[in-house]
Amino acid sequence: MRAPCERRNRYASYRAAPRRKISGFLRRVVITGLGSVTPCGVGVAPLWEHVRHGRSAIGPVTTFDASGCASRVAGEVHGFQPDEFLARRDVHAFSRSVHLGVAAARLAWEDAEQPLRRHDRDRVGVCIGSAVAAIGRNIEDGLTFFERGIGRVHPMSPLQYPGSLPSQVAIMLGLRGPTYAVSTACTASADALGLAYGQVASGVLDAVLVGGSEAPLFPGLFSAFDRLQVLSRANDPPERASRPFSRDRSGFVLSEGAAMLVLEAEEAARERGARVYAELAGFGATSDAFHHIRPAPDGLQAARALTQALAAAGVGPADVDYVNAHGTGTVENDAIETLVLKRVFGEAVPRLPISSSKSMFGHLIGASAAVELVVCCLAMRHGVVPPTINYTEPDPACDLDYVTDGPREKSLRVVLSTSFGFGSRNAALVLRECPA
User: What is the CATH number of domain 29-432?
Assistant: First the structure.
């Protein structure tokens, strides 16, 4: 394993490319801490172990009875004990999305080795994305009221809102910068990362604890997705249910979990001797303005989000070494994402390794982008392109290199991560190898 910031003279050509200055963005932003709780396990080590070796974490639904649904598989987090990260009163007070998010935040903060030794608490913020947040807990509290009366309603029910997680993280760690909750469907944590990136790069903040958390595995939401016919129906065996880009794909696998990252201004991270995983160098976001569920078939605005992110990073399509694709496993989305990549990368796209981490752990909705950016950081650090598993049949509409032959060793200097979501949303993030 090579050092994350080891100098490579042969990278001089892409480093010499001028960075586009947007609204006075001058400071480089680096990633110094990673934390996750996913269907793969608690912490980034089991996440990387699954992704690196192409091991599925998908299983049958055990959280509730899914026998009436066409899809009966999910990415559940097993063995997670929230009281290891939260006081018992807070475990009862908050929803599972908060439990998962607080755990990931604590792990990321510890991994960054206490940034507050260098930073003013007033200049460290929290920004967390989630699509459904505490909807499951709100439904439970509503049923409690109707079935058992006002005397049995939990007094903390008013705090079951998306902003409770970033507030709890800020209170827990004593971070006095702004706390943001971003709720933009499947791009939520990508948008949170973009917002945090901008705040640090422009000098508004010195550091941000940022990511996403999602707990969507409750009967009402699962059944609704099932009725939309967007969930995988390949129930047997469950570990082969998520099949991005394969011709026999039938939908995505709904999953729960959280991932958090610590972003810092590069100069501050250097001064405190922090370990740096990568530079978060660019962000782009657009809207198809087309449909709440379906992506625009021409892929033009999605492609524009990718080119925005590359331009902000000061790199071109030819500089990208790997794309971590959104790759949900739905028929239409995977085909359109393939078209988008062709639009952006042109003649270079057949030689570009592309993979979908969702083939291993499913779709964490608003937390997906954060989990996948953690994967990208680890891929860069270890010099390994993760595979796409469960690819069994080539699809003429998905004819790129999806790394279906297992993990590949490869030096990764520039990595692109894509996210697309309900409501016509598109987002992209660019990581660059950190200069020595």
Answer: 3.40.47.10
